[in-house]
Amino acid sequence: MRFCLIFFLCVSSAYAELRIVVTQGVDNAMRIAVVPFEWRGQERLPEDLAGIVTSDMQLSGRFEALPVSQMLSLPHEANEVLYRDWRLLKVEYLIIGYIQPVGGQLQVHYELHNILRQSVEVSESIIGSQLDMRHMAHHVSDVMFEKLTGIPGSFSTRIMYVTASGPLQNRIFRLNIADADGHQVQTVLESGEPVLSPAWSPDGNRIAYVSFESDSRPSIYIHDLEMNKRMVLKRYPGLNGAPAFSPDGNQLAIVLSKSGSPDIWIYDLESHRLRQITRHYGIDTEPSWTADGRSIVFTSDRGGKPQIYRINLQNMAIERLTFEGDYNAKASLLADDSGLVMVHRRDGIFHISLLDFRRGRLSVLTETELDESPSIAPNGSMLIYATQHGGRGILAAVSIDGGVKFNLPSSTGDVREPAWSPKKQRNFIPVAD
At 109, is the secondary structure helix, strand, or coil? Predict the structure, then answer.
């Protein structure tokens, strides 16, 4: 058994910080301006809130932000806004605000101005600790993004991923969690053995994953992030893998080969009871729940080649969902169950694809090679996946319509196994102005 150290804390960027590089944005991006927020305190702030909001909005691929050096004025409140100046700069929307200390905490006031209509579209104040500054900035981005696009923002979410570094004979695997913009990296697990299939609970407070740290055999662990405690599910003979939380967080779909071939099972986290769901001599793996928790989508080669199937948990009826191509795997359903994303092989190359149930159409979303492990953002507009670039494993993201693409290379090692979190709970509150 090789060493394994368990810890949960912020680590230096030398380990696995991600940086986002936009490779494709939408045509005719919306022009916005984010004015540096006025600081009304004494000590210097550790975070540039307006800079974080600007970065979030630009990295979405949907907005073009005016550089601060080109701004004709720097307003912080509505009565300071000169709409004519911003029209001359061809700005469509303006974001302004200020930050001030209040009772040992920080109050952030922000506004969204429609330049054409000369109106205030959003005006809100939130209060939190200095440690919450980045989270408050991402909240501002979420509010602005939803107001301007009609789509809830996902800037306040987190991404979980695995990095592998070092020589092949002595690889170090780390399970990391970072903000959606790649900052504030935390390492949950460090091991000399592989870590696979990380998954989030619906509330984002627990994660499940497969680790080989015990006798180099696969075991499924559930890690409570708030308590920094973890438990191992009973280790069954053979394969133990692919955990997926049910929508209510009370059950875990897993893959076991204890009865022979790999099948889908459900483990009840409260009663600890185990129920077998599929029974087939082929390989059934990679379970994913439907939003209502009544069905599970999974990969199976029962038809000769890997394809996507769905099983109804009430009557155990199974239906095949994919028919185009000889390889379809690792599926995740959209939140409204209108389609699924998956790994699809076309012309011998693995891509991430979207199967639209309503239109009956399969769309290839990525142009890279060896794409795998797609995970959908909670707002359903983007998905993250693992791919290869320059001989290294990296993460990349693409919008559901294929219009926005960006890469998330790591500062060190190969990156794989991404999982996008549910929307992060806020540690701050809105306040009356």
Answer: strand
Beta bridge partners of 320: 309
Q: 405: which 2 tokens?
A: 């693409």
What are the tokens at 186? 């935390």
- CA 324 vs CA 229, 236, 346: distances in Å: 44, 35, 10
Tell me what pLDDT residue 8 has.
34
Size (the chain), residues: 433
Q: Find where tokens 């701050």 sit.
A: 428
Helices then strands (H, E): number in the chain?
4, 33
Pairing between β-strand 119-128 and β-strand 405-408 as defined by DSSP bridges: unpaired
List C-alpha distances in Å: 108 to 40, 47, 183. Answer: 10, 13, 21
Sign of torsion over alpha carbons 261, 265, 269, 273: negative
- Angstrom CA distances, 26 to 22, 36, 75, 119, 375, stand at 11, 25, 29, 26, 21
Q: Which residue has the higher pLDDT, 42 or 425?
A: 42
Return phi, psi of residue 286, to 5°: 55, 60
End-to-end CA distance of the chain: 59
What phi, psi does 2 have (nearest 5°)?
Answer: -85, 165
- Helix or strand (DSSP H, E) at 250: none
Distances (CA, A) of 122 to 25, 204, 348: 25, 28, 49
The per-residue pLDDT for 49 is 95
pLDDT per position as a tens digit, 219-268: 999 999 999 999 999 889 999 999 999 999 999 999 999 988 999 999 99
Q: How far is Cα 59 from Cα 23, in angstroms, rounded to an integer? A: 10
Q: Which of 179, 185, 242 is nearest to 413 (CA)?
A: 185
Answer for the pair 242, 254: CB distance below 8 angstroms, yes or no: yes
- The neighbour count for residue 171, using CB atoms within 10 Å, is 17
How many Cβ atoms are within 10 Å of 236's Cβ, its own excluded? 17
Asked if 332 and 374 count as a contact pair (C-beta separation under 8 A), the reply is yes
Helix (H) / strand (E) element for 412: namely none
pTM: 0.89
Neighbours of 114 (CB within 10 A): 16
Half-sphere exposure of 401 (CA within 13 A, CB side): 7
> Whose structure tokens read 């290869």?
388
